[in-house]
What we know:
single chain, 4 helices
Amino acid sequence: MTQHTNKIVAAALLSLAGLYSANASAALVTDAHGNTGYDTMEECTAAVQSGAAKFYKSFTHKPALRRAGEVRVQKMELSKSPIGVAAGNIAGMCDKGAAHKLGRDGVSKVLQGKYVPYGPDMMVNVYYNRAGKAVRVTMEQCDNWFSGNLPAGFVKASAPVAAAPAAPAAPAMMAAPAAPAMAAAAPIVRQVAPAAPASAVAGISTPALIGLGVVAAGVAAAVVNSSTTSHH
């Protein structure tokens, strides 16, 4: 491209960047207390659903004030109020910022007309009539107004994502069969020669042995006597 063309492209890109920046900054407005508001309901809803929204916090203190036809007031969380319960499982609420009226404020002037995010656990005043029906809801700490007596800009909470089923475990490795045990060595049989037969004497009774001894002694004496006689 020529130098002239490069300048044109650069200028166009700068213009687009400036336009984008202006639009981005215009989408979110912040007051002196850090509370925010969006230009459109869609922007506010997207911020609540994504978790990027900064929920409104009251900065003044005023007591609850019953109006005509209201007989009692009860404090509770926005999600547990009759309008919150009717809306179901909510992540928050986006309500168009209200102005001051009838002795009570709405939101900061810079947020009036903007879509302001409110958390599901924000404390609110719920006003009931004689029939026990909720007829008005305000911010609990300051009794400030919402855009209407019963605001309805609730943002549904995203359905929880079901956890993916766990992958089946890999089959266990089969162990290799053990090698067969070596055959036992054949027993060595030693041929033991039979013991020599016991002496015949072992089978003779004790009296018999004594008798034999006496006979042998007599024979021996006779031999000795014979030998002696022959010498004389």
